[in-house]
Specification:
- It contains six helices and six strands.
- It is α+β, with helices and mostly antiparallel strands and 212 residues long.
- Strands 2-3-1-4-5-6 form a six-stranded mixed β-sheet, sandwiched between helices.
- Strand 5 and strand 6 form a beta hairpin.
């Protein structure tokens, strides 16, 4: 009789221990999911729900180092909504936010691969990181996005460039063995190309000295 009681108690102890282990694993799993969710939120822009500047910086660093290590191309574009202050002044800031959200959707939808990244670079500026893309491939992708923005035809009657919202793009590539030696130089060259796009009348894509 005493043996049966000990056996039952032993089974109860093992069951309790098993339940504790299961509950601990479930709690750890829930914590991991929560942490992953928080990490994703920390990397997203609150308005447009695309990558934020923090994510852009870390992603560019990672792929810059990978491009150097594996001798791969890395293409970067910066883009700016033309006359966005005039848009906000004319339509209001709420409509301005809606405009940025719509443009972010177009940019994100234009990415052919999950490794391509669109980020909000700041204000009305966006950035596109295209790992492994040649200058020609990168320009073709961005030209398609530019064309989609034209066809979307978001009204902007306060713009001196067009009657709809337009965007200027400037791009550059890191090619192993080329003149660009740092990620900062890559950003600088893309920014110079964006400046050229604005100087040449806005609403265009400039890749280094190549106008599209």
């Amino acid at each position: 009789m005493s043996c049966e009681i000990i056996q039952i108690d032993g089974q109860d102890c093992l069951l309790s221990l098993s339940n504790d282990i299961t509950e601990r694993k479930q709690a750890e799993s829930r914590l991991k999911v929560a942490n992953n969710t928080l990490q994703r939120l920390a990397d997203l822009d609150g308005l447009t729900k695309i990558a934020n500047r923090r994510r852009f910086d870390s992603y560019l660093k990672y792929h810059w180092e990978k491009a150097q290590r594996e001798r791969l191309n890395l293409t970067l574009f910066l883009c700016d909504v033309d006359h966005f202050k005039a848009y906000n002044d004319h339509y209001g800031h709420l409509q301005g936010d809606a405009c940025l959200m719509q443009l972010a959707k177009i940019l994100r939808a234009g990415m052919p691969s999950s490794t391509d990244l669109v980020a909000r670079y700041g204000g009305e500026e966006f950035a596109i990181i295209l790992p492994g893309r040649s200058p020609t491939e990168g320009t073709e992708i961005v030209q398609h996005i530019w064309q989609t923005i034209q066809e979307t035809n978001l009204p902007h009657t306060a713009s001196p460039t067009a009657t709809f919202v337009t965007v200027s793009f400037g791009g550059c590539s890191f090619v192993p063995g080329g003149s660009i030696r740092t990620a900062r130089q890559l950003i600088g060259r893309a920014d110079e190309a964006l400046y050229q796009a604005k100087q040449q009348g806005r609403n265009r894509v400039i890749f280094s000295d190549l106008s599209v």
